[in-house]
Design a protein that fits this description.
With 112 residues, the chain is mainly β. Helices cover 0% and strands 49% of the residues. A hairpin with a 4-residue loop joins strand 2 and strand 3.
Length: 112
């Protein structure tokens, strides 16, 4: 799972970098000082509008596992039925928002 420490409702950091990632409608963040944003690699799709990223590493083509960097945050994505990607290629990402997991940064308790 991709784990990203979030500083506010939409700004995520890892550790000194920031990126904007979508939140579920019923996020339940409230006034928390920080949250941890979790998204599984199979719930990140290429071709969306949530973030721009650069491909870093491409694993075997039959089930492409790619390492991406979006605004300095490293993410893993499992991409199927897409053309082959190459390192340093720019792509747009779509997050399956209803599959996002949010946790309280201090207690570790899931909040959505």
């Amino acid at each position: 799972m991709n784990i990203i420490r979030a500083m506010s409702r939409v700004a995520c950091s890892s550790p000194d970098k920031a990126c904007a990632l979508p939140l579920p409608k019923e996020a339940g963040i409230g006034n928390r000082q920080g949250v941890v944003y979790g998204i599984r690699p199979q719930h990140i799709a290429v071709g969306g509008s949530h973030a721009k990223a650069r491909v870093q590493v491409v694993e075997p083509p039959e089930a492409q596992e790619i390492t991406l960097t979006a605004d300095g945050v490293d993410l893993m994505a499992e991409i199927r039925e897409q053309p082959l990607f190459r390192p340093d290629q720019e792509v747009n990402l779509e997050i399956v928002v209803h599959k996002v997991h949010l946790f309280d940064a201090q207690s570790g308790i899931r909040i959505n």
